[in-house]
Every structure is written in C-alpha cells, then in structure tokens.
Amino acid sequence: MRPKKTRWVKCLPGERCFRPKCKPRGKISGVCVTIDEFEALRLACLLGMKQEDAARLMKVSRPTFSRIIASAQKKIADALVNIKAIKIEGGCCKVVIKKRRSHGK
C-alpha cells in the first residue's frame, strides 16, 4: 500500500470527543474520525464547497477527497444512528497557519 500524502488542514476541532448522554460511559462504543476527515466535513458539508475546490485546499486529488469525505460521513452516520461516541484524532495532516501581513512602510 502506498504511503498517504500529507493533507493540509486549516481548522482543528475545538472539541476532540463527543459522546451521547443517554448511555452510561462504560457502555458506549465509538468511532474515530481523523483530522483530515473532520476538515473534509467542514469544507464540504458546513461551508458547502465543491469537492474539486476543497480537494485543492487540502492539496489532494478530487478522488482522494471523495474517499475522505465518504469515510467521514459513514463514521458520523454510524455514530448518530447507533448512539456511539465520536473521537477526532490522527491522520496525516499538516496545519496551515496564515501569516499576518504587516502594513508597515
């Protein structure tokens, strides 16, 4: 299997774990969403970006972006339907930090 290409993300999750309150803590199973899957969800689902544009921002191909978003959506759907916790961690990502431009002379 080929090594994964680094995916560029702009937004890290503020919260890393979400769990249902209706089940006791010891009886909850969970799913793990990677940081690049989280970013793909943010770009496509929250911001409504086209896959081609979102893929360009993450510096991956459009087919790769499609696989990332499909995986993320399946995990989130599994968690919601089957009352599971969602943990956000891992993935081969690099966080993009925009540099501030100085307006000095």
Bin the helical content. 25-40%
Number of strands: 5
N- to C-terminal distance? 52 Å
Tertiary shape: elongated
**Gyration radius from CA atoms, angstroms:** 16 Å
Main sheet, how many strands, which sense, barrel?
3 strands, mixed
Can you describe this structure?
This protein has 105 residues and is α/β, with parallel strands linked by helices. The protein has a domain of 64 residues: Arc Repressor Mutant, subunit A (Orthogonal Bundle). Helices cover 38% and strands 15% of the residues. The protein is built from three helices and five strands. A three-stranded mixed beta sheet has the order 2-4-3. The N and C termini lie far apart (52 Å). The model has no long low-confidence stretch (mean pLDDT 81).
Give keywords:
single chain, 105 residues, alpha/beta, Arc Repressor Mutant, subunit A, three-stranded mixed β-sheet, two-stranded parallel ribbon, 5 strands, 38% helix, elongated
In short:
The chain has a domain at 1-10 and 36-89: Orthogonal Bundle (Arc Repressor Mutant, subunit A), CATH 1.10.10. Helix content is 38%, strand content 15%.
Produce the secondary structure layout.
Layout: E1 7-9, E2 17-18, E3 30-33, H1 35-46, H2 51-58, H3 62-81, E4 85-88, E5 93-95
Parallel strand pairs: 1-5, 3-4
Antiparallel strand pairs: 2-4
Helix pairs in contact: 1-2, 1-3, 2-3
